[in-house]
């Protein structure tokens, strides 16, 4: 496989995404948004992240384009902007279990299988 600028950008973005989701608090935030928009207070309650720590992580996720925010009648609501990132976060979290119970909820996803590279 020959590297090209286009392929390099794809791998650069994938590495950036992995770095963003390598922080447990951010995985919790993405998990909490997986099934719908949430207010800041709802995220505080659902994630268990302190108020001082939650805002910087939300800002990072919003700047990256993984999470969106918008003003509603009742205040700011946060949501998932990138469904693929949400799926990746779900996959990563599903690989961790405690006595066979997935921390994400539901059945753990099967291990990744990498396609054979063509030469």
Report on this model:
This protein has helices at residues 5-20, 24-33, 40-47, 51-64, 83-94; strands spanning 38-39, 67-72, 75-80, 97-98, 101-102. The protein is of the alpha+beta class. The chain has a domain at 14-95: Arc Repressor Mutant, subunit A (Orthogonal Bundle), CATH 1.10.10. Helix 2 (24-33) crosses helix 5 (83-94). The chain starts with a helix and ends in a 17-residue tail after the last strand. 18% of the residues are buried.
Topology:
Blueprint: H1 5-20, H2 24-33, E1 38-39, H3 40-47, H4 51-64, E2 67-72, E3 75-80, H5 83-94, E4 97-98, E5 101-102
Antiparallel strand pairs: 1-3, 2-3, 4-5
Helix pairs in contact: 2-5
Quick description:
With 119 residues, the protein is of the alpha+beta class. 50% of the residues lie in helices and 15% in strands.
Features:
119 residues, Arc Repressor Mutant, subunit A, 5 strands, globular
């Amino acid at each position: 496989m020959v590297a090209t600028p286009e392929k390099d950008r794809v791998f650069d973005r994938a590495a950036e995404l992995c770095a963003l989701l390598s922080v447990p608090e951010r995985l919790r935030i993405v998990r909490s948004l997986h099934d719908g928009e949430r207010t800041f207070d709802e995220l505080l309650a659902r994630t268990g992240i302190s108020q001082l720590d939650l805002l910087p992580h939300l800002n990072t996720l919003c700047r990256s384009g993984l999470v969106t925010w918008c003003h509603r009648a009742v205040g700011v609501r946060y949501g998932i902007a990138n469904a693929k990132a949400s799926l990746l976060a779900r996959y990563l979290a599903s690989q961790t279990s405690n006595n066979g119970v997935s921390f994400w909820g539901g059945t753990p996803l099967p291990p990744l299988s990498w396609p054979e590279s063509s030469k």
